[in-house]
Structure formats: structure tokens, C-alpha cells
Amino acid sequence: MTDWIAEEHRYLFQNYGRQPVVIERGQGTRVWDIEGNEYLDFVGGVAVNVLGHSHPAVVAAIADQAGRVIHTSNLFYTTPMIELARLLVERSGLDRAFFCNSGTEAVEAAIKLARRWGHDTRGGAFEIITTTESFHGRTMGSLSATGNQRYREPFEPLVPGFRIVPWNDLDAVRQATTDRTVAVMVEPIQGEGGVNMPAPGYLAGLRAWCDERGLLLIFDEVQTGIGRTGTFFAFEHDGVRPDVMALAKGLAGGVPIGAILARDEVAAHFVKGDHGSTFGGNPLAAAAALATVREVLAPGFLERAREASARLVERLRSLEDRYGLVTEVRGRGMLLAIGLARDCSAELVDEARRRGLLVNNVRPNAIRLMPPLTVSHDEIDRACDILEAAIRAIEGAFSK
Ligand code: PMP
């Protein structure tokens, strides 16, 4: 039998810390490896698989679209993209959509749009304020916006024009604002930074400051969008609407796609030839996205996801009450993290996997849970039982 992990080590760049599982297929919250072992998938493709694996509506939409036309380029009109734009515009209260292929591309588009708008209307202002511990992507513009030094330093010099201020500190944003500032960009909940919640009033304070100073407020909802936090967009929790929003991950239920949404007055500054991509919003990705978005917006879907989240949080809180290793449960909806008393998240991830649960270590002292929004109460209970056994194993190892 082929040793796929050895083959990967031989033929691929070694830039990922992959878990030693070769996944062959998935169904709902479950995946199976090539040896037939079954796992509960609480990584969910890093917040991508909002409907779980191989959801019938997504599979049917992809198959149907693939049989019609897969790709035509943006030299022509295609209907799935236009329908998708309408759905996203109607839900967001923003006016227009642009499609690309990933989260980092969506952020790049948002950065370019903000600069274009500053060029045209703010005397060439171009600086964008972002926050510490933020994650906006790995291409040069998005990386330059990313607050985590670990990702940035080896790739300097980065793109100029970003000011990084402490997360959850409104005064720092005010102080960093100059005549050259054009926008403030934040994740409504920081995902890769460790699932860090915004302080009460933080997002509203940013909105008020941007309004006062004539700045764009950009929300990077790449991780938080499409129901992940219990509402379709995370900004709905706070009632704070951005001027520009970046989306990706969950949007097409697993097919690569990215998008930005913007207010009319801002979107109008991208004129013909300013920005684009060959694949962006292509019929296959857009059809998968349409099917995904329709499911998530169907009556009762988000209510059920919120109920499942409440169940999961309750179970995790009971671990917090009973095990010294668990210091905190944070996050919202199906974007949750467990804080640990020690830097043992990698060991906990391994222990959980050996028992049939896939999770992700988002920090040395925190694991992140991002199951499909469709996860059942029974799957939540089984996952939490496994997590508890894994925590016991780790606590046992440390007390020896
Ligand atoms: N922004 C946020 C908030 C993200 O979480 C991510 C991915 N983790 C990105 C941007 C980049 O997305 P992608 O990996 O699709 O480029």
C-alpha cells in the first residue's frame, strides 16, 4: 500500500504542520481516513465546511453546474455569480459584491479598494489601521495587514501603509489616525489569533470613530461569516455595519471562493480595469456558494446552529468546571476555543485524534473547535466525551 505521508514528504513543500491522517471521504460531521478509521471533524476545514462534508444540496449544485458550464472568465456574464451577489447584498445591507478565490484575495481586494477610494476622495490617504494578533492572509498585502509578527518578520520588507495597534483598544486607534489614514480593518472576532472576542462596545466605537473621521470600516469576516458565529454575518451581533467586508471560507461550502461587499459610494471607485481575476466567482464556485448560502439562510437553520452551539458551550463549560487544565471557553456560535493552563495544545490535539476527534491547536495553550453548523447534539456529546478522555490523559501525563 502506498505510504501517502512519505510521498507527501517527498513531493510537496513542507510548509504545513499536517496531522497524520490521510482523509479519503466525509459525510456531515464525520470523515474517514484511507484505512477506514472514522473521525468526528471539529476542524471543519478551518471554518469552511459550514454544511459538513458532501452536503447533498452542495453536491447536487456542483454536479448540475459542472454539466452546464464550469468556467467562462469574467469577460462574460454568468448567472450564478449574479444571483449570489444579490443574496449577499440583500443580507448584508451593503450594495455590491466582487468575487475572487480565497480569503487573502478578498483582503487584497479590500485593501486596494480602500486605497483607490483614498486616492480619489481623501487626497491620497492610504494608511490602514489593523490590530495585534489579527490574521488577514499570507499574500504580501494581507500579510502586511496581519498583526502577528511571527508571520511577518521573515518576509520583510512588507507593503508600507499599515499601522498595527493593540486589539480591543479604541484609544490606540484614535491615536494612530492621521491625515493619511483611509481605513480601519478588524476581524469582528479574531480567529487565528486564538478566538479573541471584541470587548463590549469596541466594534461600535470603531464605527463611531470611522464616521467621525471619514474613514472606511472594513470587517474581515473571512472566518466569522456565513453563520459561523450564529448569525449570518458576525457584525449582526453588534449591529455594526462595515463599509467593506471580506468573505471566503464558508461561502461556497468548501469550494474555493472569496468576496468583498461594499457600499455603493466605495465600490464605485473600482472602475473598469482596476481589479479582477480570471477565476473569481466562476460558475462552479458560485453555484456551490448559492446552494450553501440558501441552506444557511433557510428558515430555522441558524436557530438550530445556535441551539447546537449552546449545547457545545455548556458541555465545554462543564469541562472547565471539572478540570484544572481547562481555563476558559471563549468564542461564539461554532467558532470556539478552549484555553489551557499549560502549553499542551499539540498533545491534546493528538490525544483527541487517537480517540477519533479532529480539533486544531490555535495557540500553544488553546485549541479551536469549528464543527459544521449542522453538527448534531449526539455528535457534540460524543466529541465532548472524547475531549474529556483526552484531557484526562494529558492531566495524568502531567501529574506523573
Ligand atoms: N482572514 C481571516 C480572518 C482568516 O481567518 C483567513 C484564513 N485563516 C484569511 C483571511 C485568509 O484566508 P485564505 O487562507 O483563504 O487565504
TrEMBL record:
It catalyses: N(2)-acetyl-L-ornithine + 2-oxoglutarate = N-acetyl-L-glutamate 5-semialdehyde + L-glutamate. InterPro entries: AcOrn/SuccOrn_fam (IPR004636), Aminotrans_3 (IPR005814), Aminotrans_3_PPA_site (IPR049704), Class-III_PLP-dep_AT (IPR050103), PyrdxlP-dep_Trfase (IPR015424), PyrdxlP-dep_Trfase_major (IPR015421), PyrdxlP-dep_Trfase_small (IPR015422). Keywords: Amino-acid biosynthesis, Aminotransferase, Arginine biosynthesis, Cytoplasm, Pyridoxal phosphate, Transferase. The keyword Iron-sulfur does not apply. The modification N6-(pyridoxal phosphate)lysine is found at K249. It is found in: Cytoplasm. It is an enzyme of class 2 (transferase). Transmembrane segments: none annotated. Pfam families: Aminotran_3. Pyridoxal 5'-phosphate binds at G103, T104, F135, D220, E221, V222, Q223, T278. Its EC number is 2.6.1.11. The keyword Cytoplasm applies. Binds 1 pyridoxal phosphate per subunit. Homodimer. Belongs to the class-III pyridoxal-phosphate-dependent aminotransferase family. ArgD subfamily. May also have succinyldiaminopimelate aminotransferase activity, thus carrying out the corresponding step in lysine biosynthesis. This is Acetylornithine aminotransferase. It comes from Tepidiforma bonchosmolovskayae. The gene is argD.
